[in-house]
Amino acid sequence: MLHSNQFQVNEAWIAFKLNDEPMHTKLDGDFDILALMDAASCFILSSVLVAAKVAEPTQMESRQLLEHGKSHKMQLPKILFVPTEQPARFLVAEAERVGIEVVRVEEYQLLIFISEAREAFRDHLGGSGDAQ
């Protein structure tokens, strides 16, 4: 089982969907939020809005997600954990292109890291997935 104390800051990142239900907007439709978190500190490094009908970030969004994550410590991690249930072929390809080892794991193995962020996000929205 994975735990945050297994990692040094910036050694491993986790890519995961932050929201439970798509975010509804009147103008642009439904979106999911893909977040990038440091496994040691559980700090959210970056996030990107992904059209819910697409389900995964584009190559450009994937590159931007990793670059923004890199900007915090001016380095990339050694490992990127991605839930097997999360569509992420462009993110996986981009991570591997820049030398990050990608490890696909069942989402339940990442809950110790990501559940608090998801709960805080739900609380922030007040239980609603509606946005302007």
Give a quick set of tags describing it:
single chain; alpha/beta; disordered C terminus; globular; six-stranded mixed beta sheet; Nucleotidyltransferase, domain 5; 132 residues
Largest sheet: 6 strands, mixed
Mean pLDDT level: 92
**Strand percent estimate:** 25-35%
Q: What is the name of the CATH class? A: Alpha Beta
Helix residue percentage: 25-40%
Secondary structural class: alpha/beta
CATH superfamily: Ribonuclease H-like superfamily/Ribonuclease H
H-E order: EEEEHEHEH
Number of helical elements = 3
Q: Give the CA-CA distance, first to last residue.
A: 39 Å
Q: How would the global form be characterised?
A: globular
CATH-defined fold name: Nucleotidyltransferase, domain 5
Instruction: Supply the CATH architecture.
Output: 2-Layer Sandwich
Question: What gyration radius follows from the Cα positions, in whole Å?
Answer: 14 Å
The counted number of beta strands is 6
Low-confidence stretches: 128-132
* Count of spatially separate domains: 1
